[in-house]
Amino acid sequence: MTFQVPNLPYKFEALEPHIDAKTMEIHHGKHHAAYVSKLNTALEKAPSFFERSINEVLQALNQLPEEIRTAVRNNGGGHLNHSIFWKLLSPNGGGKARGTILQKIDQQFKSFESFKEQFSNLATNHFGSGWAWLVADKDRKLSLLTTPNQDAPILQGLHPLLGLDLWEHAYYLKYQNRRPEYIT
Ligand code: MN3
Q1: For residue 81, how far is its CA from the centre of ligand 1 (angstroms)?
Q2: Over pLDDT 90: what percentage of the chain?
Q3: How far apart are CA 80 and CA 58, in angstroms?
Q4: 6 in helix, strand or coil?
Q5: pLDDT value of position 93
Q6: Ligand 1 center to 15 CA (angstroms)
Q7: φ/ψ (deg, to 5) at 176
Q8: Cα 119 vs. chain centroid, distance in angstroms?
Q9: How far apart are the first and last CA of the chain?
């Protein structure tokens, strides 16, 4: 089975006014679709990897032929990161975290407000394209980081809990150069 773009769990316009319908349509239908298409083309050189999940493929990059490793890292990462991103967004989302995750955030970042501020600063100051993440390590310790390009946290053995796309294609139509406003 080749990799497929997952359906959005809501309509393109569902995230208005924060993220506009046209951005969602292009982001999901063109950008994500291109990552998937290029991933599938690259893996034609190693078709046994079609049997694996995208997480497993990215964790086994060094088993791939060297000539397709970069293409799989970039486009496989693009596929995984966006698949996570669509599910993190929701028309009924937002607000303060609750329950166990809030306790962990308070422990690690002192308060939810301080976590938001640190996450926003990190995302704002990331140079160029990439992603901002809240991740858990294997001991369930939380931390913040950014990754360049489409590098996925799983490449570092980290489990993403929250991710924000910092590529201009994610916000340019509505926010132009105002990345901080998009992040908020
Ligand atoms: Mn994107």
Answers
A1: 8
A2: 97
A3: 9
A4: coil
A5: 87
A6: 15
A7: 45, -120
A8: 14
A9: 38
Containing 163, the helix (H) or strand (E) segment is strand 159-165
Claim: this prediction has a pTM higher than 0.90: yes
d(CA 130, CA 51): 28
Bridge partner residues of 142 (DSSP) = 136
User: Within 13 Å, how many C-alpha atoms sit on residue 43's CB side?
Assistant: 26
Ranges of H-type helices in 98-156: 99-109, 112-125
Question: To which residue do tokens 């301080």 refer?
Answer: 114
Ligand 1 centroid distance, CA of 110 (Å)? 30
CA 64 remoteness from chain centre: 23
Sheet bearing 142-148, strands edge to edge: 142-148, 130-136, 159-165
Helix-helix angle 66-88:33-43, to 10 degrees:
150
Cα dihedral 174/178/182/184 (nearest 10):
-140
